[in-house]
Amino acid sequence: MRLTYRTLMVLSVIAAEPGASNRHVEEAAGIHDQGQISKLLGRLAKLGLIHNSGAGQPKGECNAWTLTGRGQEVQRALGADR
User: Fold this and answer.
1) Taking 60 as the threshold, does the pLDDT of residue 82 lie above it?
2) Total domain count for the chain?
3) Which residue segment(s) compose the domain that 48 sits in?
């Protein structure tokens, strides 16, 4: 996966605010498309960089994203601090 500016912003938002919902990450990262943020979060989760600790769609509740250990390492290595 390419690490784009948007990817770094999303990792930074989640690092600064663990438990952030899709909508919060979208707004804080400056992404204005729900489809884009959902796909990006899904790709980051598949790469093992973030984890959804919320109940999510099956229960009709918000997602709650946190960085995994690997995600923290990537975020630190890239200097993606906000």
Assistant:
1) no
2) 1
3) 5-77
